[in-house]
Write a structure and sequence with these properties.
Structural class: mainly alpha
Number of helices: 2
Largest sheet: none
Distance between the termini: 62 Å
Radius of gyration: 21 Å
């Protein structure tokens, strides 16, 4: 481990760790969008007013 290529190590860690937060971010936005659209009709059906 004396000759560690820090750039290669950084890229390897980056490709292992970063996809998961991006997936979380994507599904969070998708969920917020769907709940926003569902809330419009759900509030009317349940008689909820703001």
């Amino acid at each position: 481990m004396e000759n560690i290529d820090r750039n290669a190590l950084y890229n390897k860690v980056l490709w292992r760790v970063m996809p998961l937060p991006f997936l979380y971010f994507f599904f969070n936005g998708l969920d917020r969008n769907n709940i926003g659209f569902a809330g419009l009709t759900m509030n009317a059906e349940l008689g909820i007013t703001s």
